[in-house]
Amino acid sequence: MASTITDLKSGFRRGNLCIRLIYITVGCFLIGAVAEVCALLFNQSLQPLMRLLELPASPVQLLMQPWSVVTYLFMHGGVLHLLFNMMWLYWFGQLFLQCYSTLHLRGLYLLGGLGAALSYLLAYNLLPYFQPMVNGSYLIGASGAVLAVVVAVAYRMPDYRVQLLLLGTIRLRYLALITLALDLLFVTSSNGGGHIAHLGGAATGLLWAWALSKGTDLTRGINALLSGIESLCSPKPRKPKMKVSYGGKRTNDYDYNARKKAEDEAINQILDKLKKSGYESLSTEEKQRLFNASRR
Predict the structure, then answer these.
(1) Strands, DSSP E only, in the chain?
(2) Is residue 248 assigned to a domain?
(3) Which candidate, 6, 226, 228, 275, has a CA 20 to 30 Å from the CA of 37?
(4) Residues 129 and 56 reside in one and the same domain
(5) How far from the centroid of its chain's Cα atoms is residue 265's Cα?
(6) Co-location of 94 and 218 in the same domain
(7) What is the pLDDT of residues 29-82, one digit of tens each?
(8) Do 124 and 60 touch, CB atoms closer than 8 A?
(9) Are residues 280 and 172 in the same domain?
């Protein structure tokens, strides 16, 4: 068991951001699943607690749990939901890192999640079809953020070919279009909110990639905020202790003045001897001291 934990820690440290996001998301799912099983053993339910981490369609409820615009990304409704999202994140996250930077992935993943959340909230509160469902509807899953990454890669590498199990080889542009078309067709299905979030995340990824090609990085603000939070949370290096000396400057001044006075007296004595007996009467040491004093 200890070696397994060590291997997991090592894999997390060595992995890129894509791998770390998968580790974190899977870890959150496992913690929630184990906690739910433990609660059921005592005939309890953690559903009210889980709801605090899911994104509510109701704006009033969202005001009471604003953190859910981020935490919902790490909540999933089952193993298959988690598996498909993490597989897409792994495949297209690796391609993304070949086109863009790690900071871009970090920023776009969060930006795509926010775009998906915004589209979900707008649809459920503005479209008459969804309004009767507002109070009991919640959004979970990283699909919107993942699709933002997929579309950004498809924008940058539209002719890149991927091998799919049933469809064979297909270019990225067509894969993205097929995925979005299916989401659009199933907007009124039982998981209509999820498909709307997919479309919102994809639109965010497309907008980001287009703006970046024009020289504008829409994730700059998000990355600056995340870097600031990271610097606050990271341990700060300990400063070396300063050695404090009380009265040190005054002591040094006294020593300097005493040495200067002694030197002046010695030079005065040499000058008196020079006056009385002449230069030849001076010793070699006295001549040197007099010479050094004349150069100051």
Answers:
(1) 55-56, 138-139, 161-164, 168-171
(2) no
(3) 6
(4) yes
(5) 69
(6) yes
(7) 999 999 999 999 999 999 999 999 999 999 999 999 999 999 999 999 999 999
(8) no
(9) no
Residue 30: inside a domain:
yes
CA distance 171 to 162: 6
Alpha carbons 130 and 132: distance in angstroms, whole number: 6
Q: Which amino acid is at 283?
A: S
**Rg of the chain, C-alpha, whole Å:** 36
Which residue carries 């610097």 as its tokens?
231
Query: Closest by alpha carbon to 115, among 29, 173, 55?
Result: 55
d(CA 79, CA 21): 17
**Which domain covers residue 275, as residue numbers?**
263-296
Judge if 79 and 200 occupy the same domain: yes
In contact, 112 and 104? CB cutoff 8 Å:
no
Same domain (yes/no): 68, 182: yes
Q: Which of 233, 253, 284 is the last residue of a domain?
A: 233
> 155-192 pLDDT, tens per residue?
999 999 988 777 788 999 999 999 999 999 999 999 99
Question: How far is Cα 55 from Cα 52, in angstroms, rounded to an integer?
Answer: 8
The C-alpha angle with vertex 246 and arms to 244 and 251, in degrees rounded to 5, equals 120
Structure tokens at 149: 């990454």
Cα 9 from Cα 18, distance rounded (Å): 15
